[in-house]
């Protein structure tokens, strides 16, 4: 079997930034405009929380550079069941999150080809299986495609970030701070629940740890650098767009970046921005196809998922994990195909984000427990306990902001994990 080439700092940093910067940067400015410029405050708070989570994953990635990321840390500190539940939640969040990228991809593609909306299901399924095939040929191939997509996606972001200020009007922010009709706390909490989706993927460098060069050094550098790049991109561009377009107009805008591009560069600017949005979304599909299968593979190798998820092909990738997960995503798209693109996106994004936060919560608590157990040998003990505490509190706050309906379905999925775990254990014995 040929030895699979591994990722270094540069490719992994681009992979992290590309995983984080996905549909959120292109879709959320309009959603946040429903609340007003208080959405910028929510984005800043979420960015700070994401940095703390990145610090948690950077530390745990250096301590335990094992494939599986959040799953590996929860399994090491809490044992089989919590390890299984973490992998289960992360796996669901990953493939539902991957499914959520399909609706906006179809939407932006319709700018160039309006007819695709009539065939959105077929085209969506085509994208799912295209990136499944790409990932079947190796982790490095997937990371190179992700790096290329990341490069192109940041071009329109930089255009809006730097040139948009020429059309910036501070009154658009100051006169519409909170237009939600709710209290500031309520608006801030719900806006933060939306912005958290933008930072899902902060742990991405830790997941394929077995395919990384010198992971104890590479993972922390790539995690922090990639997260900071994403945070700066989000805050600067969102502020620019909210200052360019009046809040009430922005709240009903289907493609805020395309509108901003038209303001800055004229009619062709909308197409230029749309081109970058497509690269962003397709890069996200590629990255999440890798992540969702690596976690399932790691859990299967530990006997907590069915063994079929651990079967690798000659390129050292979990072939059946990719195929099974892609089949499930296809079923999700088919079941929800009667919904319009916006409703389909909202359903997937809220479910995926809340499921994703649970592994973040377990990882933050795992770091605190690890530091307590190794207190005498741990460097900067108090700082790491503080970081883990903030990561834990931020994760809990994020779950509460998702709303009762989403939490209900998430709890239902978690309860389902109990009999599934029992079945796995029975099969092992």
Structural write-up:
Helices cover 76% and strands 0% of the residues. With 429 residues, the chain is mostly helical. The chain has one domain (9-428): Amino acid/polyamine transporter I (Up-down Bundle), CATH 1.20.1740. The chain is globular. 54% of the residues are buried.
Q: Indicate the CATH class.
A: Mainly Alpha
CATH topology: Amino acid/polyamine transporter I
* Major sheet characteristics: none
Overall tally of structural domains: 1
Described by the principal axes of the CA atoms, the overall outline is: globular
Question: How widely separated are the two ends?
Answer: 32 Å
Order of helices and strands: HHHHHHHHHHHHHHHHHH
- Say which CATH homologous superfamily is assigned: Amino acid/polyamine transporter I
In terms of DSSP E residues, the strand content is under 5%
Question: What is the C-alpha radius of gyration, as a whole number of Å?
Answer: 21 Å
Mean pLDDT: 81
Count of strand segments: 0
Q: Report helical residue fraction.
A: over 70%
Q: Ranges with pLDDT <50 over ≥5 residues?
A: none
Number of helices: 18
Named CATH architecture? Up-down Bundle
Describe the protein's topology.
Elements: H1 9-20, H2 23-33, H3 38-63, H4 70-78, H5 80-100, H6 102-112, H7 120-136, H8 139-163, H9 171-174, H10 184-196, H11 215-244, H12 247-251, H13 256-265, H14 267-301, H15 319-335, H16 341-373, H17 381-400, H18 404-428
For the structure shown, list the relevant keywords.
429 residues; mainly alpha; Amino acid/polyamine transporter I; 18 helices; globular
Question: Care to give the gist of this entry?
Answer:
With 429 residues, the protein is mostly helical. The chain has helices at 9-20, 23-33, 38-63, 70-78, 80-100, 102-112, 120-136, 139-163, 171-174, 184-196, 215-244, 247-251, 256-265, 267-301, 319-335, 341-373, 381-400, 404-428.
